[in-house]
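Collaboration report, partner site 2.

Our partner group contributed sequences for two proteins of shared interest, and the home lab folded both. The records are reproduced in the order in which they were received, starting with the first partner submission.
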Amino acid sequence: IGVGVYSGSLLSLTDAAAERLMIIIIGLVIIVVLVFGPGIWVQRVLSRYSEPAERYDATGAQIARRLLDEHGLTMVTVESTDGGDHYDPAEKAVRLTVDKFGGRSLTAITVAAHEVGHAVQDDRKFAPLHWRTRLVKATRGVERVGAGVLMVAPFLGLLTRVPAIGLITFAAGMMTLGISAVVHFVTLPTEFDASFGRALPMLDKHRILKKVDRPHARRLLTAAALTYVSASLMSLLNIARWMAILRR
């Protein structure tokens, strides 16, 4: 009887362990989908409509220039960059990566229109855009402090052997890696307005898109709006890494 009870208990423990393992696996899958999913989808959409490469007669840069001029934004420049597609409100510049700047694909045209949408927001004093600009400037100093602490904290930990150094390191990681994610999430309406409140109406008004491309352009504009968010989600993995380090 004793052996039977022991075997039953062992089986119960095995079942419980298997159940916990399954919950952990499901949790990890959900986290991976939530963190990596948006980024994978965004890149897949942008890549898919980058072909055919010569779909339009004008390049992304030419479309951006045309739309800016149509709105009287002749002072806004259109520049090529390696730093990702964006609009710089301080320098009054629409910046496109090389493939968008000189590209003639649907992706190049649509992303260019999205960034012009931000320029129009700036010109129209769109409040959420200015809030985001202020937030980015305000948090830039905090991020730099956090990065500095991250660099110094391991050496302080070795020298002082003070457990609190781990907490300081975690706080620095949160400042460095978490703030930008929060800023992008809070200002997500700005991105969707640039896509669907500005870019799509401009593309329709000036009849830039081929008729069959409009549904695809909507998908691209959604991807453009989610670009920063997907990058921010990826940065959250670094916060999880710091938490794992501190638990050791």
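Second partner submission, folded after the first:
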Amino acid sequence: MCIRDSGASILALAMSKVIHPSALKHISHTMDDTMISEICGSTDELSSQRLSELLERIALNEKGMDSFHRTLVSPEDRKAMIYDITSLGSYSENISWFEYGDDYKKLDLAQVNLGVVMSVERKIPIYHKLFPGSVNDVVTLKNLILSLIHI
């Protein structure tokens, strides 16, 4: 199944996070308390059993993400950009991107690094990318810049 086939579920997931920004394990409560299912149609992919599969398909669809980012970046964005890199920790043992890095070693917590690029001109995020947690910030920044060059 391609990402395009999951459009309704992705829209429902985004709407849910805007309405009730909490952990994804609580999404069923948001879906029950709102009309998101009626607006977006079937949201079977958002059940606890299928949500991980959906998120993994989205994360692994690098071509689709690059295509999406190309639609966001405009010529005026290339004049000035702001970037931020942050580390996110997790106790999950099932997500390969989470690795032990410097930021969370003291907590004995695996991490993933998230790089986000903002357009100074338009004041919106135009690019993001995840990097394994064991990659240090300097290498993450270098890889983020290399990725931006190719979109």
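Feedback sent to the partner group on the second submission included the following. The first strand starts at residue 81 and ends at 90. Helices lie at 7-19, 27-33, 36-40, 48-60, 62-72, 137-149.
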